Amino acid sequence: MSNYDFYHDYQYYLNDFNRRNAPQVEPDTPLREAIKTMNMDKVKELIQRDRSEINTHNSKGWTPLHEAAADDRRFFIFQYLLSAGADLDYKAENGVSPFYVACKYGSIKIAKLLIEAGCKINDKFAYDYDYNRSVRFGFTALHVACTRKNEQIIMLLLANGAQTNVVDDIGRAPIHYAIDNSNGMAVQMLIDAGADLHVKDIYGCTPLHYVSMLGNITVFNVMKFLYTRKKNLNRRTPEGLTPLMLACQFKHYHISEALIQLGADTSVADISGHLALHMAANGGYRLFKLLLKNTSSKAIEKHATHRPNSKAWRSLTCVVIESHYFECLELLFNSGLSEDVLKCPEKLNGHVVSPLGFLLLHNNRWFGKEHKLRWLELFLSYDFMVDPVYHNNENIIPSKLKCQMWKVSIDKIMEPSSRRIGSIEAVVQMHSRLHIDCYCEMFLSMILSKIASPDKFLPSDSLRQICLFNESAREGFLAALSLLKYSEYVDPDDVIDTLLKQMANPNYRWMGHEDGVVRLLVEKCATNFLPVFSGIKNALPEPGNPDDVMKYESYVRMEEMFKSNNRVLSLKRLSRFAVRKHIRKEAENSDVCFRSYLKQIILPFPLSKYVLYDDYF
């Protein structure tokens, strides 16, 4: 059960129980029909003719006296049944008595009569079916009266000694249900009668937690003067939730404001590391501003920054992204908080991502391309947001996975526990060949315009770079493939080779972008791929539908490209391929990056550019 939805989850469970277990009531007998239609003469006639039915129950467990107790207009019938020998203490299998029925349906005169007759008003009932709400477990008459918003019944019960602090099977006292029904008068009566405002249900929720969740300021004002001690004001559930956190989670501005004025602690976090401020982000600008103003920077630094080996944190910036309130983001960035808070990463599908990466990968149908563009522009106006580095979160792919690079995506090849996704990787993962009116190229261009040396923002691990470019080719992301010129580990030959292996698979899904990828890369390759490519034709089905025709047309275009490139390669191109391979190997052995090692070699500047593909992309 989640931290915040336990109340509704439990209601769903009860309703499901009700649906599966509610008894099927048979048609009414003539006596029951006469009671329901308030036909006193008929009732007397039937009872005088046959008294055997007076204490007979139906499949619901109700006797005729139960039926009469359900409506005060049947008061005289109820009196007659009692005088005729009806058992006023008869309880159905679930423990429901005529007195309980009278309290449930607001039959004040009948309830008073039963109390005068000596009914036990504090008896518990095992359970009760309520077709409008749920199944009740362990209710007293006072519980049910509080669920029905009947102040007269509540007053009658309290005046006759009803216990205010008896709890049902889930630990809730009558005051919990009075709050649930937004019944301020009932809450006041219960408080005056000695209701315990600190009683906790099985989820650790006090009445103050309830009113904070439900957001009725009138009921809150009835209770607030009794919470003068901060200890009581800040009581926490087992999940660490305070009343203020719940008020923020359920977007109740006035309750949150009142709690803060009473002294609610804004610096505590729940067991997941969430402050009330985190929860307020989903409540709109006013609520977020209120909590931001009243939460100390020390608390924010503690719970909204990422530190080495930290396990519980939550990025405020990413929470605001989830909320979709751009004005909250502007407020956050103008708040004077540290860069560590603003650039704090988030965990997304088990991976560590920067706020910029989170923005790109955040999947929400309300977060359109134009919306993302606006947020991206704000992030890129701060240099520290472009691609921040975090401690202890770089993930190196095990070498044993190298053989899988042509089969799977970046996301699947990585161990999720500690992997950090950079901005460029995020754009590649965001891109899909199915995008309509794709903005990904624009997003990538905007990010690259803020990066002085793109090679430093590619993944530092060789296998991650292989994943990056293989996925770009598979999805037809040509703008990302142009970054091959900055790669220290990957050549166009590697990407083409992987793409051809994928295309040779009979289950490969052709999308029509394959020839575009080949066109971009083939002239930069030093490998003759025509023999390999020719074998792909065997994996193509006979052209029997438009999709198959599209595959053949794409195949023919690529075949022409490979044929035109099938010539004696120049010594210059072969030399570049060999030099890059040699430098890569030497760089790996010397623990320096490809470009750093290249700088150690005395080469003419044009030759260095050629080795780095700068003259081709």
From TrEMBL:
Keywords: ANK repeat, Repeat. ANK repeats lie at residues 60-93, 94-126, 137-169, 170-202, 239-271. GO terms for molecular function: ubiquitin-protein transferase activity. GO terms for cellular component: BRCA1-A complex; BRCA1-BARD1 complex. It holds the Pfam family Ank_2. Transmembrane segments: none annotated. GO terms for biological process: protein K6-linked ubiquitination. The keyword Thylakoid does not apply. InterPro entries: Ankyrin_rpt (IPR002110), Ankyrin_rpt-contain_sf (IPR036770). The keyword Repeat applies. PANTHER family: ANKYRIN REPEAT DOMAIN-CONTAINING PROTEIN 39-RELATED, BRCA1-ASSOCIATED RING DOMAIN PROTEIN 1. This is Uncharacterized protein. It comes from Nezara viridula (Southern green stink bug).
